[in-house]
Write a structure and sequence with these properties.
CATH class of the largest domain: Mainly Alpha
Number of strands: 10
Distance between the termini: 15 Å
CATH architecture of the largest domain: Up-down Bundle
CATH topology of the largest domain: Butyryl-CoA Dehydrogenase, subunit A, domain 3
Bound molecules: flavin-adenine dinucleotide
Shape: globular
Oligomer: single chain
Length: 398
């Protein structure tokens, strides 16, 4: 077992840390206030080759590993979770879907500009009728001589208004459940494909979250991503990877809350001494530190497993579940440590709480993740019980 980052991983983390602290953090409060989409910062991410990081060289990527990618997300989130979500949803979900399941033609057409940061790709699963039940979309795709005719609507789609194309999950065999779902890549501007107004969100206010409508949207056969009827399992695989990114994002938010709370506890005095002298405050800081470090280890382990080509569904779910809830707890504690100031916008830490809350909802709610984890350990009875020693055997090995 080796807990050291490689020189390449450290280089990515340090590069993104410097960029995030110097160029992103100073504007994050203002971006939260205005809700302005971070177009200029995305251009800087492209210049820094961060969009290329997780994609293969044949499509203009750097072929970086998942650990480096997740570290980059943590550093961005420390400064501005809206920017980190914009980046992560594109890389993990939209472009990530094409990376995993797109045809060579789809990759050449869309993944290459996506890896250059020239085209955002969104991923649309959630519908007005529900997001947790991915096997039963109401959006329909019917076969036509020319290709497919799509009808339906999607809600809460990250980058929905700015995406050059969106991966749309639709039922190709209504009532077919898991085997009746397929994915389609629909370019922006396709007749009948429209974007609704931005949601007024609690947090992540400068990220783009929009509803989408599909009314008789006709796409060619080349729009189908992967095999017909395999969309459900594809989406689950995409979300497995995405959860590592959301866990890292949550750790970044939580770490920012901790750093601010620690600085404030050292400088603010009450009863003639710094807050940090009080055991009640120290215990909060100790708990935040412990939980965030464990959350970081959890996402790094999931990322490491993914990089080894080994199963990581359970580990990604556990990392996201624990990190998201730890981030909310850390942000909540940071508000408490800031006292009245923590409850105001001037205190900044309230933003961390508002941003952290989404991490418990997007890409699998905490409830759904607990179901995933329980199923993975055989608690649902659907899979054979795992080797009881498996959890104790740490480190590499078959
Ligand atoms: C800012 C933001 C960005 C988003 N980005 C995207 C995106 O890019 N693409 C996309 O497709 N979606 C996106 N979403 C949607 C998000 O993934 C869904 O909101 C989430 O999956 C939950 O779906 P839902 O809102 O329909 O809740 P529901 O599925 O209706 O669930 C409501 C509640 O019931 C619980 N619940 C549901 N089923 C069960 C069960 N079987 N057992 C126990 N509890 C259950 C849930 O955990 C939740 O607490 C985004 C949402 C937000 C707010």
């Amino acid at each position: 077992m080796d807990f050291e980052l490689t020189p390449d991983q450290r280089a990515v983390r340090d590069l993104v840390r410097a960029f995030a602290r110097e160029e992103v953090a100073p504007h994050a409060t203002e971006a939260d206030r205005t809700g302005q989409f971070p177009q200029g910062l995305l251009a800087r991410l492209a210049e820094l080759d961060l969009f290329a990081l997780p994609f293969p060289p044949e499509y203009g990527g750097l072929g970086g590993d998942t650990i480096s990618y997740a570290l980059a997300i943590e550093e961005l989130a420390w400064a501005d979770a809206s920017l980190a979500l914009t980046y992560a949803a594109h890389c993990s979900l939209g472009a990530g879907y094409l990376h995993l399941f797109g045809s060579p033609e789809q990759k050449a057409r869309w993944l290459t500009p996506a890896a250059r940061g020239e085209a955002l790709i969104a991923f649309a699963l959630t519908e007005p009728g529900g997001g947790s039940d991915a096997a039963h979309p109401q959006t329909r795709a019917e076969r036509r001589d020319e290709g497919w005719l799509l009808n339906g609507s999607k809600v809460f789609i990250t980058n929905g208004a700015h995406a050059a194309a969106t991966v749309i999950m639709a039922a190709t065999r209504p009532g077919g459940g898991k085997g009746g779902v397929s994915a389609f890549l629909v370019p922006a501007g396709t007749p009948g494909f429209t974007v609704g107004p931005q949601y007024e969100k609690l947090g992540l206010r400068s990220s783009d979250t929009a509803p989408l409508a599909l009314e008789d949207v006709l796409v060619g056969p080349e729009a189908l991503v992967g095999e017909e009827g395999r969309g459900y399992e594809q989406a689950l695989a995409v979300l497995d990877g995405g959860r590592i990114g959301i866990a890292a994002l949550a750790v970044g938010i939580g770490q920012a809350a901790l750093d601010r709370a620690l600085a404030y506890a050292r400088e603010r005095t009450a009863f003639g001494q710094p807050l940090s002298r009080f055991q009640a405050i120290r215990f909060k800081l100790a708990d935040m530190t412990t939980e965030l470090e464990l959350a970081r280890l959890a996402y790094l382990k999931a990322a490491w497993l993914k990089d080894q080509g080994r199963p990581f569904r359970k580990e990604a779910a556990m990392a996201k579940l624990f990190a998201s809830e730890a981030a909310t707890r850390a942000a909540n504690a940071a508000i408490q440590i800031h006292g009245g100031l923590g409850y105001t916008r001037d205190g900044v830490v309230e933003r961390y709480w508002r941003d952290a809350r989404l991490m418990e909802i997007g890409e699998g709610t905490s409830e759904i993740l607990r179901l995933v984890i329980a199923r993975e350990v055989g608690a649902a009875g659907a899979t054979p019980p795992p080797d009881p020693g498996a959890g104790l055997r740490a480190g590499p090995g078959p």
